[in-house]
């Protein structure tokens, strides 16, 4: 049982890392932020992924929509990108 949680956290961490790499290829990071702000945004996204994955365990469509919205909002805050472009990249990013 505990292994499942550890694997879930590891998979979420790798998913967020790949997502940030994807967004870096299409947008630049926001200027004027110290190094802790992007780290905090990634941690917030990881917590959101965990909450969404456990809250919508039985509702896969709602889980996908919630992850797409959460990803696009956090990536809009992290990168200099319009929200609709972030939403489009989030839709095409495999969840």
Verbal overview:
Keywords: Membrane, Transmembrane, Transmembrane helix. The chain has 95 residues and is mostly helical. It contains four helices and two strands; from the N terminus they run H-E-H-H-E-H. It has a two-stranded antiparallel ribbon. Helix 1 crosses helix 2, helix 2 (36-55) runs antiparallel to helix 3 and helix 3 packs across helix 4. The protein is globular, with a radius of gyration of 13 Å.
Q: What's the total count of β strands?
A: 2
- Terminal Cα separation, in Å? 23 Å
Which sheet architecture does the biggest sheet show?
2 strands, antiparallel
Rg estimate, integer Å: 13 Å
Strand order, largest beta sheet: 1-2
Please tally the helical runs, counting DSSP H or I stretches of 4 or more residues.
Answer: 4
Question: Would you tell me the overall average pLDDT?
Answer: 89
Global structural class: mainly alpha
Keywords: Membrane, Transmembrane, Transmembrane helix
Transmembrane segments: 6-24, 36-56, 62-81
How do the helices and strands line up, and which of them pair or pack?
Blueprint: H1 2-26, E1 28-29, H2 36-55, H3 60-78, E2 79-80, H4 83-92
Antiparallel strand pairs: 1-2
Helix pairs in contact: 1-2, 2-3, 3-4
Transmembrane segments: 6-24, 36-56, 62-81
Keywords: Membrane, Transmembrane, Transmembrane helix
């Amino acid at each position: 049982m505990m292994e499942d949680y550890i694997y879930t956290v590891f998979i979420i961490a790798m998913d967020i890392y790949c997502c940030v790499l994807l967004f870096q290829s299409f947008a630049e990071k926001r200027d004027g932020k110290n190094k802790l702000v992007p780290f905090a945004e990634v941690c917030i996204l990881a917590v959101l992924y965990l909450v969404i994955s456990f809250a919508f365990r039985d509702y896969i469509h709602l889980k996908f929509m919630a992850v797409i919205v959460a990803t696009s909002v956090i990536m809009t805050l992290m990168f200099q990108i319009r929200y609709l472009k972030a939403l489009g990249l989030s839709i095409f990013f495999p969840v």
